[in-house]
From TrEMBL:
It comes from the Bacteria. The chain crosses the membrane at residues 41-63. Keywords: Membrane, Transmembrane, Transmembrane helix. Residues 1-30 are annotated as: Disordered. This is Tetratricopeptide repeat protein.
Length: 325
């Protein structure tokens, strides 16, 4: 049973603890290069041996077409299994679209349905790891911070994050979410460690690094880590550095997606904390307007950031951007 992550009554985005269960999911670890080469060689030898043996048996029993019948059966099985992979990929893309549009519950239900029937076969491992990673991010968005951390840690332990089979965007999102979980829970050392690990894995100069796509105007993986860094600075009450960071971010000018709106929330929070105690007429920060930064926020969509953060929760409630009463 997932632990309660909400003090008091849950918001519209955070289900009660009784409605969330962390089902065990066996995710296969990423095999190293030598293991993959050995596996591919064994599969090739096995298929050739099976073909030769089938042909020999067919000739021996007087059924020369037997190998073709078995071959056709193998094709049918392969097509069925491939459809499972394609279905998983379709669910993944649709769930990401639902998450971007704020339909968190629908995305969660769709991902859970696939993961409930997930296997540990390496042929489909990348699909299931992507879905498991997305499920951890969805748990965070639902405000189930401890469950999100547990799910994301399980994915990170497989070694798939940072591999070419998992996109740079998803990898950055995974490490950023782990860092945000630490910040929200008040464990700033853990948050800092995951932030640094994410930067290390996404470093384009490292061997076999997944580099940003040439057509991407903004590297979304970097934006995810920027949000994690901003959250960490806010949690440490380092509002001067937080404000300076947010002023320097190009993506902070956008409020068309959740990342941009979350950065705006943290900028408003930093201004609020920096203006405390300032003279209303002479203060540098108290003269800067906060409301425009919060204008595009949808009430409740960022409640997950304040689940275990009383100061931020009080600020969001006072400004009317929290769904909690």
């Amino acid at each position: 049973m997932a632990p309660s992550d909400i003090d008091g009554q849950p918001s519209a985005l955070v289900p009660t603890p009784d409605s969330t269960q962390l089902a065990p999911l066996g995710l296969p670890p990423l095999p190293d290069k030598a293991a993959r080469q050995t596996r591919n060689a064994l599969i090739t030898v096995g298929l050739v041996s099976l073909l030769v043996a089938t042909y020999a048996v067919g000739i021996a029993v007087g059924v020369p077409m037997l190998e073709y019948v078995l071959g056709a059966g193998g094709v049918v099985i392969a097509v069925r299994e491939r459809r499972k992979v394609e279905h998983g990929l379709r669910v993944y893309e649709r769930a990401r679209a639902d998450m971007r549009s704020g339909q968190i519950e629908a995305a969660t239900a769709a991902v859970d349905e696939v993961l409930a029937h997930a296997g540990s076969n390496l042929r489909y491992a990348a699909v299931y790891v992507r879905l498991a990673l997305l499920r951890g991010v969805l748990a965070l968005r639902l405000g189930q911070v401890r469950e999100a951390r547990a799910r994301l840690l399980a994915v990170e332990a497989t070694g798939w994050l940072g591999s070419f089979r998992i996109s740079r965007q998803a990898t950055g999102e995974g490490y950023a979410s782990l860092s945000i979980c630490g910040s929200v829970l008040g464990d700033v050392d853990e948050a800092r460690a995951w932030l640094e690990r994410g930067r290390e894995v996404l470093d384009p100069t490292r061997e076999h690094a997944i580099v940003p796509h040439a057509d991407d105007a903004i590297d979304s993986s970097s934006v995810s880590l920027e949000l994690a860094e901003a959250t960490l600075l806010a949690r440490q009450d380092d509002h001067q550095r937080l404000f300076a960071l947010l002023q320097s971010l190009r993506h902070n000018d956008s409020d068309s997606d959740l990342l941009g709106r979350a950065l705006h929330l943290l900028q408003a929070y930093a201004l609020h904390r920096l203006s405390e105690g300032e003279n209303e007429y002479r203060g540098v920060f108290s003269s800067m307007p906060i409301e425009p930064l919060l204008a595009k926020l949808h009430p409740g969509e960022l409640d997950f950031m304040a689940v275990h953060w009383p100061e931020l929760r009080a600020f969001m409630h006072a400004r009317g951007v929290s769904a909690r009463p």
